[in-house]
Amino acid sequence: MNSPTVRKVDMIIVGAGFAGLYQLHRARGLGLSVQLLEAGDGVGGTWFWNRYPGARCDVESLDYSYSFSEELQQEWNWSERYAPQAEILRYINHVADRFDLRKDIQFNTRVASASFDDASTRWTVVTQAGERFECQYLIMATGCLSIPQPPKFKGLESFKGQWYHSANWPREGVDFSGKRVGLIGTGSSGVQMTPVIAEQAAHLTVFQRTANFSVPAQNEPLTEATLAHVKAHYAERRALGREAVTGQYLSANDKSALEVNDEERLKEFEFRWRGAGGGFRMLRAFNDLMRNPVANKYAGDFVRGKIRATVKDPVKADILCPRPDLPFGTKRLCVDTNYYETFNRDNVGLVDVKAHPITEITPTGLRTTQGHHELDAIVFATGFDAMTGALLAIDIRGSGGQSLREKWAAGPRTYLGVSIAGFPNMFIIAGPGSPSVLSNVVHSIETHVDWITNFLERSRVQGTQRIEADLAHEDQWVDHVNEAANQTLYPVGNSWYLGANMPGKPRVFMPYVAGVPAYRRIIEGVAEKNYEGFMQA
Ligand code: NAP
């Protein structure tokens, strides 16, 4: 039997989302030969797959966009403050064309395994179709929210209607006109699609397990004047973003919620809820919202007050109000347009499936412990195997054949969120242990890609063949990430940040909470000290 051909390149990148595309661009700049492997048939990553009605970003597009090319940021015109999915996908396609990236991307290619050979210091990457690649550097640009959690409901196979998952939406769209639709899940995806489906469907029933907090996006079209102003001062906007805790400038208030009186506190929350504010600005209303339970409760009570003032049916309002044991913002804050208002429509129902759990899907609908709901279509907005799912879906074997699945059996461990001890010459972009999903992720991606590229440039000059995080430094970093999280209220939230949404997943707070500027100073300091904590040979 002939042995399969092996394609040899300097670098393999897995994933053609924001991270993979920028890494491809920068690696080419180093003169490396690169092959990018992408499971989908187009670029865009999360924006390629998540085409559900109402999908749009929750970080303003003027910030949630690449900053590396002045020409790019000058020529692209965002239409709205928070661009819809189709526009973001057009943007990513434009980037791929503008920088001529497609010629190094192989689509419809899912990576099955990657193994490191200590003797040659090269990785062998094998695709599900059995193709083999060999590379010196392996870059995992696989995304934090790319493995949907499959709906595991008894009887689903018997359902006679159509069902969909938010992250695997049919390309041609779905027409819910005249249909009775059931929507399971009220995280960011469910909250975004609820108002849009309600407009079209004959009837929508939202099945809510945990009431989460949602704040209005205050989305609006971007005027020519606004675009011209931002473009004239883009460098300043990006610089402010770099120094903001989330990598996006959001006028943070540096006061404690406890040092102001009731009137001032309310004024601040109102300001952030209304037109001039919106979105994640609410998290920056006071400097201790995510650290002090009393401060946090003020924010929670404010939003609960808004829910009760908006939703006319007091029973629905009560179900929608997050319980006191869920601190504000500790499950990822949802950013919506008309979410709570939608529950005032006659064709929208709400079922509390914590009080009355779903027992089964039937041929004609869904049954809870309280009764049966007749449905023509079911939408699952039930989330993802976040942060680790895409990495662990690939059988990754590092030095000495060590398995990543085994190494991470009790939760992810990284050095700086970018490297893993025992897995030489492999880097992860915006991975666990970095600000990642708690930040403007495009900003964090650029930070990581620039840092990795500089590291590789230097090691090529020095003739280094093998770069590997030192285990002791990794252990210290994991401790530091945990300590940082434990100084906040985040771990209380039982969220996907902790892996709590996946039955059986180890509970480890995965992102680094200390903020983008603090993190950048750490990784820049590491670079200045000859990449301290990395063994280089
Ligand atoms: P998610 O936040 O994990 O929400 C999943 C929802 O499904 C939760 O309400 C969850 O309830 C519910 N659920 C899961 N399994 C269930 C079951 N068996 N029965 C009943 N309910 C069940 O997922 P997501 O909404 O897709 O969002 C994930 C992340 O993607 C977001 O946090 C955000 O970072 C990102 N995202 C961003 C945007 C944006 O930029 N605007 C849009 C969409 C997503 P429990 O809370 O009780 O587990």
Describe the structure.
The protein is of the alpha/beta class and 537 residues long. Strand 8 (180-184), helix 5 and strand 9 form a beta-alpha-beta unit. The two termini are 37 Å apart. The longest helix is centred in the C-terminal third of the chain and has 22 residues, at 441-462. The chain has helices spanning 18-29, 46-49, 70-75, 85-98, 188-200, 224-232, 234-242, 262-273, 293-310, 314-320, 339-342, 389-392, 404-407, 441-462, 471-486, 516-528, and strands at residues 6-14, 34-37, 105-106, 111-117, 122-127, 132-140, 162-165, 180-184, 203-208, 214-216, 334-336, 348-352, 358-362, 365-368, 371-374, 377-380, 395-397, 426-428, 467-469, 534-536. Helix 1 (18-29) runs parallel beside helix 14 (441-462) and helix 14 runs parallel beside helix 16 (516-528). The mean pLDDT is 96. The strands form five sheets. Strands 1, 2, 3, 4, 5, 6, 17 and 18 form an eight-stranded mixed beta sheet that branches. Strands 7-16-8-9-12 form a five-stranded parallel beta sheet, covered by helices on one side. Strands 13-14-15 form a three-stranded antiparallel beta sheet, with no helix packed on it. NADP nicotinamide-adenine-dinucleotide phosphate is lined by residues 56-58, 145, 166, 184-190, 192, 209-210, 332, 353, 358, 381-384, 437, 496, 501.
